[in-house]
């Protein structure tokens, strides 16, 4: 599975200073700087540092979002990721959301830094080939319903026999056991079951679901963390293990102390819109030029600065102003004071005044604002790539910056099955064996 050379893509003349490199068209060894590094405190020598997960081999059998996000995150920091898809029914994520020239744009993000092969695991040849791939892999990420791999005789007994050091990450809606284990599970169900929807929205309105894959994304982050934890354990034990990731669990963790509150106090957090019961003022406010800003006063000192700024210092002297919870109980008064002042000023004026007062504020931005935001630009949060199918494109960069061994976007999502022959040849299959797999319908 060692990467083989690919022709270097035509350099993009429009690549801006956010990358400053000439990117490659696809997977293969790279001798120059990677695209997508972005600015940061990186080594100044000409040699590209070896990424921290270089040499880690990952098979991504998962579809849609949680599992593929985990594999993407590993690939971003150097892991060799092979995306395995059904020959006829590719990952549905390829068709999610808008496309350009028939190419799914979301896939360019989810599939980045992955080589793409096809394999029908239900066929004998597909099963045998996966076991050969597993023998040389460190990690498999899968999200089939519990029992599916076992039905194909590709469960943990078979996989661990092929490679005792293998880490198998199983990402499902409800986990591998329990009364809901075999149900179809999606992130939307986790957002509903976890309590997220119940606390989101206005008090007198229905519960609100997020308009994006929130639970899946959190589970993807958690799965990458779990995989690295299992790999760390392998360093001590010499053996792999199973990661059982239920999408309903990580989102419950990030919701904070709700179970603890209920257990100890019988308290059920209600829907409060943009407000919180922990402090105030905390809301979104409209400016005189029709834009919106968000204000936070989690710290007492910041709340006092805001009141002085908006010309209501007398509120600071009220006994109830001394704690966040008491301020929250008087949110109507505080919102009127802050919202009234903001409504008389433009966003530029509001932002400047809050910054001068050292009070916490942020503009409500849509993606157009994000793409032009100077802080995101300074951080290199958005990377510019050249893609053989779409040309110049921009997407979110790797998740964080490492000062000595940074991650990078080496290439965007590849076409369905683009690397099948190359990967199987590296695995040691002869042309006749590959042809036989195709004749069987396994490729």
**What is the tally of beta strands?**
13
What is the CATH top level name of the largest domain? Alpha Beta
Structural class: alpha/beta
Strand-residue proportion: 5-15%
Distance between the termini: 17 Å
CATH architecture group name of the largest domain = 3-Layer(aba) Sandwich
Question: What name goes with the CATH superfamily of the largest domain?
Answer: Crotonobetainyl-coa:carnitine coa-transferase, domain 1
* Total helical elements: 17
Describe this entry's structure for a reader.
The strands form 4 sheets. Strands 5-2-1-6-7-8 form a 6-stranded parallel beta sheet, with helices on both faces. Mean pLDDT is 91; it is low at 1-25 and 28-34. 35% of the residues lie in helices and 13% in strands. It starts with 56 loop residues before the first strand and ends with a helix. It has 443 residues and is an alpha/beta fold.
Supply database-style keywords.
443 residues, six-stranded parallel sheet, 35% helix, disordered N terminus, elongated, 2 domains, formyl-coa transferase, domain 3, alpha/beta
């Amino acid at each position: 599975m060692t990467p083989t050379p690919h022709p270097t893509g035509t350099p993009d003349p429009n690549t801006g200073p956010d990358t400053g490199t000439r990117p490659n068209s696809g997977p293969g060894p790279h001798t120059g700087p990677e695209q997508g590094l972005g600015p940061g405190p990186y080594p100044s020598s000409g040699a590209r540092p070896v990424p921290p997960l270089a040499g880690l081999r990952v098979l991504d059998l998962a579809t849609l979002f949680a599992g593929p996000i985990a594999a993407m995150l590993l690939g971003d920091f150097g892991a060799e990721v092979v995306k395995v898809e059904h020959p006829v029914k590719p990952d549905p994520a390829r068709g999610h959301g808008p496309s350009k020239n028939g190419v799914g744009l979301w896939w360019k993000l989810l599939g980045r830094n992955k080589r793409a092969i096809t394999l029908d695991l239900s066929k004998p040849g597909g099963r045998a080939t996966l076991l050969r791939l597993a023998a040389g892999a460190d990690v498999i990420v899968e999200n089939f319903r519990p029992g599916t791999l076992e039905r194909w005789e590709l469960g943990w007994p078979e996989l661990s026999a092929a490679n005792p050091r293998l880490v198998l990450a199983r990402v499902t809606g409800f986990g591998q056991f329990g009364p809901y284990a075999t149900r179809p599970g999606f992130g939307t169900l986790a957002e509903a079951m976890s309590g997220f929807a119940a606390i989101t929205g206005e008090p007198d309105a229905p519960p609100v679901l997020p308009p994006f894959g929130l639970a899946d994304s959190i589970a993807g982050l958690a799965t990458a963390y779990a995989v690295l934890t299992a790999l760390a354990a392998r360093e001590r034990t010499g053996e792999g293990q199973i990661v059982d990731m239920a999408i309903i669990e990580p989102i419950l963790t990030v919701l904070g102390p709700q179970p603890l509150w209920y257990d100890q106090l019988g308290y059920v957090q209600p829907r409060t819109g943009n407000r919180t019961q922990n402090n105030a003022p905390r809301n979104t406010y409209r400016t005189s030029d029709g834009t919106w800003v968000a204000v936070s006063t989690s710290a007492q000192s910041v709340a006092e600065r805001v009141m002085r700024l908006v010309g209501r210092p007398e509120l600071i002297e009220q006994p109830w102003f001394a704690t966040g919870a008491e301020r929250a109980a008087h949110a109507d008064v505080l919102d009127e004071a802050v919202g009234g002042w903001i409504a008389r000023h433009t966003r530029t004026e509001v932002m400047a005044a809050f910054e001068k007062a050292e009070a916490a504020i942020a503009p409500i931005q849509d993606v157009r604002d994000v793409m032009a935001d100077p802080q995101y630009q300074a951080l290199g949060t958005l990377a510019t790539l050249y893609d053989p199918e779409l040309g110049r494109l921009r997407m979110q960069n790797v998740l964080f910056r490492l000062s000595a061994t940074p991650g990078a976007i080496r290439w965007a999502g590849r076409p369905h099955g683009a690397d099948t022959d190359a990967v199987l040849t590296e695995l040691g299959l002869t042309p006749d064996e590959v042809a036989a797999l195709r004749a069987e319908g396994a490729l």
